[in-house]
């Protein structure tokens, strides 16, 4: 797909930070319908992404966040990423046990 711009990612994270969306995402693995909602909300920002693109980006961001976070936890400061703080605000509160369960 087309490369995500900073504004698009920011909008995605903004929607993702919605408590309602987070709860839905934490509670399910079959999340197509949730990402269809996310895509519809992005559309309101004038961002044209389908649910698959949203889900892939979400997974990639989550994965990248986790690897940066675990690098930091092991004392390495060399790894960082754009939007780390925004993602930390969303994902930082969830326990590791919860994270590993919802990872598949």
Automatic annotation (TrEMBL):
UniProt-listed InterPro entries: Myb_DNA-bind_4 (IPR044822)
A Pfam cross-reference name: Myb_DNA-bind_4
Transmembrane segment boundaries: none
Highest taxon of source: Eukaryota
Annotated ranges, domain Myb/SANT-like DNA-binding: 2-90
Name of the protein described by the UniProt record: ZSC29 protein
Source organism (scientific name): Nyctiprogne leucopyga
């Amino acid at each position: 797909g087309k490369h995500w711009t900073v504004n698009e990612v920011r909008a995605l994270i903004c929607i993702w930070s919605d408590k309602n969306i987070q709860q839905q995402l934490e509670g399910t693995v079959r999340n197509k319908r949730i990402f269809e909602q996310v895509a519809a909300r992005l559309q309101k920002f004038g961002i044209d992404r389908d649910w698959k693109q949203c889900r892939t980006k979400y997974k990639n961001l989550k994965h990248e966040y986790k690897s940066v976070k675990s690098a930091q936890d092991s004392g390495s400061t060399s790894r960082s990423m754009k939007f780390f703080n925004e993602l930390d605000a969303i994902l930082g509160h969830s326990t590791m046990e919860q994270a590993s369960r919802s990872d598949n």
